[in-house]
Amino acid sequence: MFELVVLHECDPKRVAHFLTINRERFRPFAPTRSEHYYTNSHWRAACKRSRLEWREGRAYRFVIIHKNTEVIGKIDLDHIRRGPFSTGDLGYLLDRRHEGQSIMRRAMEEVLSMAFTDFRLNRVQAAIMPQNTRSSGLVKRLGFREIGLAERYLKLDGEWRDHLLFEMVARRPEKTETAPQKVEAAPEKPAETEARETTDQDA
Question: Are 139 and 36 in contact (CB under 8 A)?
Fold first, then answer.
């Protein structure tokens, strides 16, 4: 049993503990971290920033809590670009002990549903190293489409790493057909229509 919780509503100590016990597991997939990154004080400050980022629509961060006690995963939807882009980047981490139980897939489904409704995004991107086949398989099952290889995309664990890029785009509203209406009399002059382009405003 798991629960998806907003990062800034979680006890920072639980987040610090999760990242500390998984430190070596996540090392190949993360930037080089300082010792302070794994402390309670760092995550107290990070949770405060998360609240501000959420309020300003710049990032949406979550943790996965197992049996209402232990943090076992983390999902970030960040680097939000508004205006004509309306896009964000997806990142996620899961404790190895809970792999193969569909926990991350179900949690990601919740986050993606919010991304295209509550957060009003048009596109979500995920960048995954080619050798991380488990993660690539997950995003494909969720409906992401592979769009190409980005060389030296991120510096992780002290080295520039190539990444495969995947995207998910919001579904277009389905068109509904309406029955033609009976016209009793033709207008004397054709009515003029106004073309207007609208874009989402910054949150």
Answer: no
Quick one: which H or E segment has residue 135?
helix 133-142
What is 2-121's CATH topology? Aminopeptidase (3.40.630)
What counts of helices (H) and strands (E) characterise the chain? Answer: 5, 7
Cα separation, 20 vs 86, in Å, equals 34
Tell me the pLDDT tens digit for each residue of 93-135: 999 999 989 999 999 999 999 999 999 999 999 999 999 999 9
Of residues 103, 104, 143, the one with CA closest to residue 123: 143
Per residue in 54-108, pLDDT tens? 999 999 999 999 988 899 999 999 999 999 999 999 999 999 999 989 999 999 9
Q: Report the DSSP beta bridge partners of residue 60.
A: 77
Q: What is the pTM of this model?
A: 0.82
Give 3-state DSSP helix, strand, coil % of the chain, rounded to 5: 35, 30, 35
Rg of the chain over all Cα atoms, to the nearest angstrom: 22
H or E stretch at 49: helix 40-56
Give domain limits for the chain.
2-121
Give the CA distances from residue 149 to residues 108, 127, 128, 155, in Å, rounded to whole numbers and listed in that order.
23, 9, 9, 15
